[in-house]
Amino acid sequence: MLNLIICGAPGSGKGTQSEKIVEKYHLKHLSTGELLRKEIAENTELGEKAEKYIAKGHLVPDDLIIDMISKEILCEEKRYKGIILDGFPRTLRQAKALDKMLQKKNEKISAFIELHVEEEELISRLLKRGKSSGRSDDNLDVIKNRLEVFQNQTLPIGNYYKKQDKYYKIHGVETIENVFKVITEIVENLENNNIQTA
Ligand code: AMP
Fold this sequence. Notes:
The protein has nine helices and five strands, in the order βαβαααβαβαααβα. It is of the alpha/beta class and 198 residues long. The chain has a five-stranded parallel sheet with strand order 2-3-1-4-5, with helices on both faces. Helix 4 runs parallel beside helix 5 (92-104). The chain starts with a strand and ends in a 6-residue tail after the last helix. The model has no long low-confidence stretch (mean pLDDT 94). Bound molecules: adenosine monophosphate. Adenosine monophosphate binds at residues 10, 32-33, 36, 53-54, 57-60, 65, 87-88, 90, 94, 137, 146.
């Protein structure tokens, strides 16, 4: 299986790249942000709890997220060749919980790909997106919180994957096609080296 993590600050383009990866490699796309927005739209108990954190740009508590994602990961869906995780894990605790979930299925993370974009560019992209996305968290105050949370809580988990030789950093201020090309090179390299594609 090919199990990828795409990690990047809000506005780095991880959602866009994930969609392209899904199409090319037939992976199941798991975006915790999307799953949470669906819960909110459906007025579920989880959605109600999560909404307060999302609106402020804070992380939703680990337990809620781990519970939500484990249901998706542990369900048997043989038609996929793996998963692409977009927006998860965002804390070290989530990263460790993810490893345990995959262990239950005799699987592993193949690669952790960090999409790097400078802060100024992120803010400008998110403000632009806010005009059309209708997302309540795409406004300047909340954007600043989200970027701070990313720096302090999410970026450091790269070290966890560096220690396992699974960390790749790519520059995200390129055309969508150029960024995607670099991602496909990483994936093809993994496949050539037979890294966790069994
Ligand atoms: P995103 O669409 O990935 O930018 O996520 C939107 C918001 O959902 C984030 O700002 C968080 O409040 C929440 N969220 C998404 N994924 C996670 C996660 N893995 N852990 C905690 N909170 C999350």
